[in-house]
DUF2975 domain-containing protein
Amino acid sequence: MTTLAARALLAVVFWPSLFFFWFLGPFVFFLLSTTSSEVCAQLETRAQFLAAANGAVPMLVAQNLIYAVPIICLVLWGRLFPDPERARHIVTCIKLFAAAVIIGALWEYGSSLVCDGYGQPFFSPVWQMTSYLPIVSLVLNAPLYVLAFSLGRAFSTREDAVEDEASPPA
């Protein structure tokens, strides 16, 4: 009974966090973490640009800690219900998540530094290349979302329900 309760508790945390943090969160955090266009027009010095970009760093850290909740749930499920096949998939999820975190942080920090194109050329044009990182992020996040969703479904489904579906009707 305790394993069923632990599985249910993890499912109660996993599914809402997957939906709200991974699917809706990027829009909210992107709006909060980048420098707004009203502020961009007021930035005139290199120090002001750096201060605006560095001001986004605490939000990026908080964002990535919140995004880690579904991954933590998968790791806990993997510890409670060990399965070598699922463990490999969880490791893949962790690697994809780490790469997505790095790409996402570079994109959001770079977009703060570039200041949505309103700023003056104080910094290397390399920072403008961060505008292509959402494509890389999408390439990383699509398989991460599919894998996390399938692992969550596998872990949160009861074994007896899976056995009932697998057996042919009598």
